[in-house]
Design a protein that fits this description.
single chain; about 25% helix; alpha+beta; Elongation Factor Tu (Ef-tu), domain 3; 15 strands; about 300 residues; 4-stranded antiparallel β-sheet; 7-stranded antiparallel β-sheet
């Protein structure tokens, strides 16, 4: 059953006869609840990770080849990346397996995207911005920027205050870039930092603007409950989360006579959770096909 953070916390307090007590604060109980969700999540990812299958549209912009992965992606696990422009083209975007396939000669005449996952390190560009034109969105630096197209950048004042973020749409020269949308507040003496993180990089660079042509299917993290109204997104296993939370609460009350009973219930709830996950055998309605792109790639290479 679906339960909110507030409902889980209330049930824990009621079951432990802690309705009026503040021996354990709400903040502490909230932490135990999220710890329990994390433990359950680990079991789910081990036994049936497609429980957390999710998807989103990857917005394409002309001249941009690097995009952020979903903020809630788990361990960079991508199931499929699919292109469908809704009219005359649809295909599976294959993951690049050989780095030589990233060379321009391999992609310049291609009408089909491929992708690679990268872990971009943050870096500071030059010493300062020397000029910025709002209309053209041209940023000029005092030194070589070394920013590839598609990089996500952030601008800071001389005092370190963030002005905003944008993407590099093109690089007219080694000391200048053009932003995708522009940031009106950028002024000389600002500094620019390339934001790091896990990215998906397309080959070739996008030649189109689209908000829906590319769909990314991925495995997500479970939701961390922060607000009282936040709903636990593992409803089948909320009972385990409740028992886990109660066990953490009574652990603070040395000598509590309910301790052993609650610990035994935690193990029972965990066993039931594992059995439930194990029994989630794919059928015609929930089967997710294996990634066979390797074989099509292999056949293509053999034909070349």
């Amino acid at each position: 059953m679906s339960m909110t953070l507030s409902q889980i916390r209330t049930q824990v307090r009621r079951d432990l006869s802690m309705d009026e007590e503040q021996f354990i604060s709400d903040a502490e109980i909230n932490k135990y609840i999220n710890d329990g969700i994390d433990v359950a999540e680990a079991e789910i990812h081990t036994l049936y990770e497609d429980y957390f299958l999710d998807y989103l549209s990857l917005p394409l912009s002309v001249g941009v080849d690097t995009y952020d992965l979903p903020s809630n992606i788990y361990a960079n696990k991508i199931r499929k990346v699919i292109y469908d422009n809704g009219s005359d083209k649809e295909y599976l975007i294959a993951r690049i397996k050989k780095l030589e396939d990233t060379m321009s000669s391999e992609n310049e005449n291609s009408d089909y995207y491929k992708y690679l996952i990268t872990n971009v390190a943050p870096s500071t560009v030059g010493t300062a911005v020397t000029a910025y034109t709002v209309g053209t969105k041209l940023v000029v630096f005092s030194a070589d920027h070394k920013l590839p197209v598609g990089s996500k950048v952030e601008f800071f004042t001389s005092g370190g205050v963030t002005r905003g973020t944008d993407y590099v749409a093109s690089t007219p020269s080694s000391t200048s870039i053009i932003l995708s949308t522009g940031i009106a507040a950028v002024v000389p003496t600002d500094t620019c930092t390339r934001l790091g993180g896990i990215k998906i990089k397309l080959f070739p660079t996008s030649a189109e603007n689209s908000t829906s042509a590319v769909t990314l299917w991925y495995i997500r993290n479970s939701k961390t409950l922060s607000l009282d109204a936040d709903v636990c997104d593992i409803p089948e296993f909320v009972s385990y989360v409740i028992w886990y939370t109660k066990a953490q609460c009574v652990a603070k009350d040395v000598g509590n006579p309910m301790t052993q009973y609650i610990l035994s219930e935690v193990e029972k709830a965990k066993t039931l959770m594992v059995e439930t996950l194990t029994s989630m055998v794919p059928d015609d309605d929930n089967f997710i096909g294996a990634d066979l792109s390797f074989y099509s790639d292999f056949n293509t290479e053999m034909m070349d």
